[in-house]
C-alpha cells in the first residue's frame, strides 16, 4: 500500500527494495524556501541496522502489510516483553530492541498495538496519551497561576516531565507519549 512520506509515524513498517524497515522517528521539515521534506530514522528488521532516509513530503512510500492488532501487556522477563491477544489469549514475546525506549510507558494490563510479521512482533505503538502520577516536584506556590513558566516533575514510571506550577506531588496528569509533554490534569 502506497502512502505519502509526510504521513509516516513511529512504528510504521515500510518495504524498500524487498526489505522490511520499522520507523523509529519521522520528522517533517517545512523550510521557508524550497521543498518540504520528511526525514525518517528506520531499523532494518532482518539485521537491526539503523538507516536514515529523506524524502519529499509528497513522495510515495510502500507501507508493508503486517498484522496489526491490539495486545495487552503482561510482564517483562529475561526473554523479553510478554503480550497477550485479548480475544484468542495467544501470547507473543517482543524482544527488548523492538520495545526500546518505550518500555518506561508499559504498565501491566495496558492495551498497545503490536505489528506482527510471521509471528514475531516487529513494532509497538503506544496510546497517544497516558495518565501518570507525579511523585516528585517543587512545592506549589500559592497565588502562582498557570503561566508560561513550567517546572520539572518526576512521574511514577521514572520519566521527567515539565508541568505547570500549580501541579503538586500526588496529582494525576495526562502526558503525550510521543514527546513526554504535559497535556492536562487527569479527570479521574
From TrEMBL:
Belongs to the elongation factor P family. Its main location: cytoplasm. InterPro entries: Elong-fact-P_C, NA-bd_OB-fold, Rib_uL2_dom2, Transl_elong_fac_P/YeiP, Transl_elong_KOW-like, Transl_elong_P/YeiP_cen, Transl_elong_P/YeiP_CS, Transl_elongation_fac_P. This is Elongation factor P. Residues 68-122 form the Translation elongation factor P/YeiP central domain. The keyword Protein biosynthesis applies. GO terms for biological process: peptide biosynthetic process. Pathway: Protein biosynthesis; polypeptide chain elongation. Coiled coil: none annotated. Pfam families: EFP, EFP_N, Elong-fact-P_C. SUPFAM superfamilies: Nucleic acid-binding proteins, Translation proteins SH3-like domain. It comes from Paracoccus jeotgali. It comes from the Bacteria. It is found in: Cytoplasm. One of its GO terms (molecular function) is translation elongation factor activity. The keyword Transcription does not apply.
Amino acid at each position: 500500500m502506497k502512502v505519502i512520506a509526510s504521513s509516516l509515524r513511529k512504528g510504521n513498517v515500510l518495504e524498500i527494495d524487498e526489505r522490511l524497515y520499522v520507523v523509529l522517528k519521522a520528522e517533517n521539515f517545512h523550510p521557508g524556501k524550497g521543498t518540504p521534506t520528511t526525514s525518517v530514522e528506520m531499523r532494518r528488521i532482518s539485521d537491526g541496522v539503523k538507516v536514515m532516509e529523506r524524502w519529499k513530503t509528497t513522495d510515495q512510500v510502500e507501507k508493508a502489510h503486517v498484522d496489526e492488532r491490539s495486545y495487552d501487556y503482561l510482564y517483562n522477563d529475561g526473554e523479553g516483553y510478554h503480550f497477550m491477544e485479548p480475544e484468542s489469549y495467544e501470547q507473543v514475546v517482543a524482544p527488548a530492541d523492538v520495545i526500546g525506549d518505550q518500555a518506561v510507558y508499559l504498565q501491566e494490563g495496558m492495551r498497545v498495538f503490536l505489528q506482527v510479521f510471521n509471528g514475531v512482533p516487529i513494532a509497538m505503538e503506544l496510546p497517544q496519551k497516558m495518565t501518570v502520577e507525579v511523585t516528585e516536584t517543587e512545592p506549589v506556590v500559592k497565588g502562582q497561576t498557570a503561566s508560561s513558566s513550567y517546572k520539572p516533575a518526576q512521574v511514577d514510571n521514572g520519566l521527567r516531565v515539565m508541568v505547570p506550577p500549580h501541579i503538586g506531588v500526588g496529582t494525576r496528569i495526562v502526558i503525550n507519549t510521543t514527546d513526554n509533554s504535559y497535556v492536562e490534569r487527569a479527570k479521574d
